[in-house]
Structures are given as structure tokens and as C-alpha cells.
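pasting input
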Amino acid sequence: MNIGDVARLSGLPAKTIRYYEDIGLVDPLRSSNGYRAFRENDLHKLAFLGRARSLGFTIDDCRSLMRLYEDHERASADVKRIVLEHLGRIDQKIEELSEMRATLAHLAEACAGDHRPDCPILADLAADPETASGHLKNDDGRPT
Amino acid sequence: MNIGDVARLSGLPAKTIRYYEDIGLVDPLRSSNGYRAFRENDLHKLAFLGRARSLGFTIDDCRSLMRLYEDHERASADVKRIVLEHLGRIDQKIEELSEMRATLAHLAEACAGDHRPDCPILADLAADPETASGHLKNDDGRPT
DNA sequence: CTTGACCTTACAGTTGGTGGAAGGATTACC
DNA sequence: GGTAATCCTTCCACCAACTGTAAGGTCAAG
């Protein structure tokens, strides 16, 4: 199989596949014309990588997961640990984004969004840290 | 004020402040010794930038927001539009992460996480797209 | 025999900074 | 006045995980 074939079959761009070879995630053979020659196994690996990446695993995670995948003596605990760590990172990210979301939603709500220049959003962004968005979360002046 | 002072006051690393000058977000004066000389206004700008960045705005957004901040003829609608667009991107990101989270949580739950090599996580990652994690979402074999 | 689709490598750019080296300026202290 | 510590300067390289582009080699169809 040429790179175009595995690209179609795996759903990964050819560029990405070349990149994955570059960083040692796959290692296709070479035809006499210099073209990469992928085996079934390479295709499987690439599909594995694509799925893992789509679940947000880092390339480094992918490397570990692939190693475990190919090691039939592995302990499932090792796999689970990677997943749970990743899950923790995702939860943290969701947490951060939700906080941003809440603040931004408050700000957007407070802004008239018309032709006038008065804008609580800009006022908040310009406020010193003590004040910033605190007056929208609790409006009685107590420190947050 | 030297860069160390504004770094302390704004909470931004000196490196970041230099970078912001590099990309044209601030434009401090220079003392005769070549040191950057920040005015009050520069400090305000940097604090503004720090707050906007902490809310997840891109540097490009920050540029637009700063322009609007400094334009006293602005329409608050322009500010609100930027915020709402950003809010949309955040919601999308949260959505994506939540989907990942759900899939990963299912997988982790299904995995014994012990010394044995059997691992539904690896099985899922290796499965072809038709099957992948679908069998965990609906276990009757219907296509998802 | 040429056209077009495919393949190759290599280098630059993306985002938003961070780290480090090499060297000049200033301040503190003896 | 010397010197050590702390600032400050510029410049270049690096992070993730690709993506874009250029310049060129290969192959199958008509």
C-alpha cells in the first residue's frame, strides 16, 4: 500500500503519516522507487493512533499505549493508569473552561451590545485584579 | 518603571512582556541605558492583556479588544461580538472534551486494571471505526 | 509523449510563549 | 574603589502536533 491508500483507509492526512514515521510511531518498508510501502500492520497502528489522538491522548501517551498494545504480557493496570491520568487532565481542562465560560457569560449579559461605547466587558478587563469580575459575581463589595 | 517592576505589578513574566512588545501589543519607551521604560499606561495595557489571556482570548482577540478599549467612540456591540464568538469556541471545546471524557470513563470502567493483559481499552483503540467504543455505548450491535 | 495524479525530501510557519547563553548596567556592600 | 549580585539587553533555539509550500522524481492513461 502507498501512503495515499493508508491515508484514505486510516482517515489520517498523508502529511501526518509521514510525520508519524518521522517521530518513530510507524516504520513502513520502502519500495524500490523510494515510495513508502505499508503493511496491514502499519495500517492497524495508524488507525490505533488516529483513534487515540481523537480521544485527546498526547503523542507521548500514544507511544506508551502502542508499546502496551504490542506487548501481550502487559498488565491492564498500566493501560488504565494512562487513561485515568488523561481523564484527570481532561477534567481539569473542562473545569478551567467552565470557569471562563461562566465569567464570559456574565460579562456578555451585562453588555448592552449596541452602538454606545459604554461597555462593562472592557471595564472588567481593565479593572485591577481585586475588582475584576468580582463585582459581577458578588455585588456587595466584599472581597471574593 | 523597569521591566521587572511591571512584571511584578502585572503578574506577567518579563519574558512574556518582551514578547508582547515584539508582537506590537505594547510599546514602552527606552531609557538612555537601553532599558525599557514603562509608563502607567503600559502597565494598564499589560494588566488588561493578562486578564484577557486568562479568560482564554487569543492574542488576536486581545489586539482587537485593546483597539476597542482605546477607541472611546467604539460600539459596545463590537466588544460583545468578540466575547460571544469566544464563548462559542469555548462551548465547542467543552463539548468535545465532554465527549472524550464520557468515552474514556466508559473505557476505564470496563478495564479491570490488574496484572492480567486483557484490556478493553486497547481493544477499543484497535477496533475499526465502525465498532470502536460503539459497543460500549450501545451493546446490541446496531450501528451508531 | 505529454498530462495529471501520485510520490519524495526539506524547510518554514502555526500559537503563545519559555529557556538559555553571552554580555552590558546598576546597585549593595566592604 | 573593587567586586559580587542582581538587573537588564539581544538573539537563538525549543515545545506540540502538525500544516503549507516548493522543487522535483515516478507512474499510469490516452
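fyi Chain A is about 60% helix and 5% strand.
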